[in-house]
Amino acid sequence: MDFEYTEEQDKCDDCGGEWLNRYRETEIDVEKMMENSLENLDMRHPPELLKSFRGMTSKHKHVEPIEKGLLREKHNLYVNKDATVRYDAIDLPMTHFKPKEINVSVEKLNEIGYTEDKDGRPLKSEDQIVEMKPQDLVIPDSDNTLAASDYFMRVANYVDDLLEEFYGLDAYYNVEEKQDLVGELIIGLAPHTSGGTVGRIIGFTDAKGIYSHPYWHAAKRRNCLPGDEEVKLADGSSRELREIFEEAEAGEVADGTGTIEKDIDVEVVSEKKENLKVYRAPAQEFELVFETESGREISVFPDHRVKTADGVKRARAVEEGDKLLTPLSVDTDIEDRNKVRITDFLDTENLMVRESTEALDRLIGELGGLKPAADELDMSKKTLSNYRYRESTPIEVLDRLSNKTGSDYSISDDAVLAAKRDAVQLRNSVKLDENFMKLLGYYLAEGYIRKSEDYGEEFYQVCFAFGEEELKEEMRSCIENVFDVEPSEGENILTVSSRIVYELFEEFDAGKGAHSKKVPEFAKSLPKEKLKPMIAAYFAGDGSVEEGRLHIDATSSSRQLLEDIDFLLKRFEIFAQFSTSEREASGILLDKYGEEHYRGQTFTSHKLHIRSSFAVKFGKEIGFALERKQKALERDYQKARKPRTEIQGDIVLDEIKSKTIEKSEERFMYDIEVEETHNFLTSENLITNNCDGDEDAILLMMDGLLNFSRKYLPDMTGARTMDAPLILSTVLNADEIDDEAWAIETVDEYPLSFYEESQEYVKPWEMETDIQIGEDIVHSDEPYRHSYTHETADVEDGPNQSEYVTLDEMSEKTSAQLGLGEKLKAVDE
């Protein structure tokens, strides 16, 4: 049977207009179609199981012929969403090999272009060392895993059957044994990308991975997280990936698939803080959301590399019961400060300098007196004179006078400031002492700000709610000590009525009300001793002690606030857990507004839990600022036990309790490249990897050319372009790959001076000895001319898989790693 493929037209032949709709709902006789397909392939019986999609998500609802599915089932093959068959494996770098190491004869290598060894001598022996061509690869052929050699033999036979039995053409591969695959072309594709790179099979290995030139592995790119996912910065603050990307300087196109790369100047929390770039690429169709036993969540795209207790896995392969990692402790950049200068925090447009006219007098004098100065400012002499007489000068007036004279002025720390029409006066410098930090903690727990700017009803207020006398007196004492003002007292409320105090709390950005609360950015990087009174005061307000169980809770309407507190607790090596529930109004709310006001309403309540020995650690190192709660905690110290939480070193293993798939609303996905460590911390304090990964997919070239069609891909942002070989790079250009790959040393020996400097523990970047790396030759005529310092007897004599994956228990893996550390001189135990 002859078949002719005709590209579907975009316009009508008769009228030239575009098609309005290329599909419609109709009844299909699937049984008849199956019978016809079996007849076309001369197959008597259908397979026992043949799966298909319930519905098509592509734009024009194209489907592939049933015959292709039948033939794939015949050869026991799985199909990708773009109709190709792929093989996944980790990347293994190789620049040189011996013919015997890759299980291919010298004669076969001669046929495909390997005619000389690395020294230019004719290739005649299986023991000669050959320089690998940059787009060649050696594929797995081992009983320990799914052998790529066997798999691609099945794919080749499937393609040949398809050509002969469906298209009526001659077979292409005619593969009878694995050696027949040598010389065949493949397409290499990394997750999240739309650009495939051509490669060629030249041999086979027992290793569970694909050997190829490091430049071929580097010729692919990937990205992985939603834009609203927040990451922890080194100063303790959190930023959305989207925000980091958008605020970075103009970037450049990194590939042909829409990936944009930008250099960044921010530091994230990682084992090291040396991140270089932020990436943005078109998003995928779905997100995976993982929730752990400790109540933490992370949203990722399916091919994101997730760091688990069993190693790094693709998110799609992570299941319930796997364990994510969260640090027990974190190190942040410490920035101590002893004061807050109001003029550094607030917009000075509405501020007045009181009780001093020194700057005003000097600037007026420089302009020749009151009258000339008033004329320069286009105001009356009386107005300017009144500022002097009342000893209350708008900073805005001082700024204008300074501009007119060209003379600077300064506002000292001791300067007395006030807002316009505000009776409360503050020193410009507010001390960050214990009283200030406690007041900030009380605000996070029980405070809010409100204002009215309506004419005749103008007010600015900072309020603190309290539920017991001791807490009220603590709050009152802090307010009086920090601001030297006595708050008014209402029903369970202390109120500071002052515009300058209001604006100060507003500018701290600690949240205006319960749902928007968060720890101010400047506080997150303070030393631990300054944080203690703030945390103690916060728990005095929002915290509670469950007597008899050694269990501390903190309850808030703001999840972000609890995430911030959790991060600060990690500074003290205190592990906390989260929970969320719906609750009815209670406490002060009911006392003030009554049950009728809240009838039928529920509120989302977030809790932070500190249990057992961690609760004892909290009590001893931080404690409650409220004596009643502190004593209740101390009474149960003797009930401390080892935490149920599994901890390895300073890492907590947090078991996944749920995995859900959600439709992504994101147009883009993002990633941060962290040098060396390749991981960073999310806002919920989970460790995640950036996605410069080591696992690729490969597919036979003819399978891709014959079966791939972008018209099968889902008609959704990201899914239309990602994980599909829309672009095919046939030639690898060394100067176009990620420049990190150029950092490979290319020499065949190290000079004596290198060893001498190494013995003196000279830092790598301070070494005087110059070692040639790929970057030095990448723009030369021989960019792939790499060498090596030591020969191997046979690369197959080494392990064919990582020892790490052979150990079942995390304790075994940790012990093995520590044992290796004992043997390495470079490891300081």
Question: What is the fold's blueprint, element by element?
Answer:
Blueprint: H1 30-40, H2 66-74, E1 87-93, E2 96-97, H3 106-111, E3 130-131, E4 136-140, H4 148-166, E5 185-189, E6 195-205, E7 210-212, H5 214-218, E8 225-226, E9 230-232, E10 238-240, H6 241-247, E11 252-253, E12 260-263, E13 275-282, E14 286-292, E15 297-300, E16 305-308, E17 311-314, E18 323-327, E19 339-341, H7 342-345, E20 351-354, H8 358-366, H9 370-377, H10 381-390, E21 392-394, H11 395-405, E22 416-419, E23 426-427, E24 429-431, H12 434-446, E25 447-452, E26 459-465, H13 469-483, E27 488-490, E28 493-497, H14 499-508, H15 521-524, H16 528-542, E29 543-546, E30 551-556, H17 559-570, E31 577-583, H18 588-593, H19 595-598, E32 603-611, H20 612-621, H21 627-634, E33 646-648, E34 651-663, E35 668-674, E36 679-681, E37 687-689, E38 695-700, H22 701-707, E39 727-729, H23 752-759, H24 774-777, H25 810-823
Parallel strand pairs: 1-7, 4-6, 6-39
Antiparallel strand pairs: 1-38, 2-3, 4-7, 5-6, 5-38, 8-35, 9-10, 11-12, 12-13, 13-35, 14-15, 14-34, 16-17, 18-34, 19-24, 20-21, 20-22, 22-23, 25-26, 26-28, 27-28, 29-30, 30-32, 31-32, 33-34, 36-37
Helix pairs in contact: 2-4, 8-11, 9-10, 12-13, 12-16
Rg over CA atoms: 34 Å
Shape: elongated
Main β-sheet, spatial strand arrangement: 1-7-4-6-5-38
What is the oligomeric state here?
single chain
Low-confidence stretches: 1-8, 254-258, 716-721
The tally of beta strands, per DSSP, is: 39
- Rounded mean pLDDT is 82
Q: Please summarize the sheet with the most strands.
A: 6 strands, mixed, barrel
Helical run tally: 25
Helix content: 25-40%
- For the record, give the distance between the C-alpha atoms at the N and C termini, rounded to a whole number: 73 Å
Strand content: 15-25%
How many domains would you count in the coordinates?
5
Structural class designation: alpha+beta
